[in-house]
Design goal:
single chain, alpha/beta, eight-stranded parallel β-barrel, two-stranded antiparallel sheet
Length: 299
């Protein structure tokens, strides 16, 4: 069982930003992730910094903490340039980077480059090209590939990743095509639960929906002859019914996490507190959960 955190890139590095990452390491989190967006939801009109520079700085400020995106998407990324940044990040961090990767959505990132919002089918089509090409770019010295959406012409990536054969992919997916990508290319799978239940569903309904997702992942793995146990299973919290209850107290977290670890999850991810936002959690409770939560679950 692992406990990780998401640190949204909203604080200037020298005005509390750095301290959040070093504190995450001190608290014993397994991984500290950040969102790879250009802006996001209610934070759109406030400070928001880039994921790759933030993770680079975090890598220099920490020693043991794993770092990653949760998640990167094709909305404004290209596999060739992303691969170069990831190899550099993996080198700077000494092999501590995990790439959380998903198909993207319909938020601000979807249109900021002037394109029309992609349909779900278009997102799936692009994701289906993006992930395999990125996999090759991170494992081969030179890649040439011509796709419908993404191409590479003698793209050089020497010396490759510190982690071999490449840094791990945590693939966010719930649909059949995305789950197949997770089964084939992922070292981990990510879910936020069933979005249809977020506002009107119950916690019990959410658990059952996530159980169904886990079963579908198992089938996707079985279809290609892979043992689903080889994949870590990551739950990004904050998007299931009654999200505020999760971090109300240590007991509330233990109850929530226990139910999901029973479903086969290996990692639970909680958001670091941000005052006056949807993530306005009591700092003391957050730190108590970080330091005592897993110990309570193991009793």
């Amino acid at each position: 069982m692992r406990l990780s955190t998401v640190i949204l890139p909203v604080r200037p590095w020298h005005q509390g930003g750095r301290d959040e990452w070093t504190r995450a390491e001190q608290l014993g989190f397994h991984t500290a992730y950040t969102y790879d967006h250009l802006s996001w939801r209610t934070f759109r009109d406030g400070p928001w910094y880039g994921a790759v520079p933030t993770l680079t700085a975090a890598a220099a400020a920490t020693e043991r903490l794993r770092l990653g995106t949760l998640v990167t998407s094709p909305n404004f990324r290209h596999p060739v340039t992303l691969a170069k940044e990831l190899i550099s990040l993996d080198d700077i961090s000494g092999g501590r980077i995990t790439l959380g990767i998903g198909a993207g959505g319909t938020g601000f990132d979807a249109t900021v480059l002037g394109q029309e919002t992609w349909t779900p089918r278009e997102r799936a089509d692009r994701f289906g090209e993006f992930v395999p090409l990125l996999d090759r770019l991170l494992t081969e010295d030179s890649v040439t590939d011509e796709g419908t959406f993404y191409s590479a012409v003698e793209a050089r990536n020497i010396p490759g990743c510190v982690q071999r054969p490449r840094l791990p992919f945590a693939v966010a997916a719930t649909g059949p095509r995305g789950l197949r990508l997770a089964a084939k290319h992922g070292q981990a799978w990510v879910t936020t639960g069933d979005p249809k239940l977020f506002e009107t569903g119950t916690r019990e309904q959410s658990v059952e929906a996530i159980r169904g997702q886990v079963e579908k992942l198992g089938k996707a793995c079985a279809d290609i002859g892979r043992d689903v146990a080889e994949l870590d299973k990551i739950l990004l919290t904050g998007f299931t019914p009654e999200p505020g209850r999760l971090l109300e107290s240590l007991d509330a977290f233990v109850d929530f996490a226990g139910k999901h670890f029973e479903l086969g999850f290996t990692e639970i991810v909680i958001h670091a507190p941000i005052p006056d936002s949807d993530f306005a959690v009591d700092q003391e409770v957050f730190e108590q959960i970080a330091t005592e939560g897993l110990a309570q679950l193991r009793r």
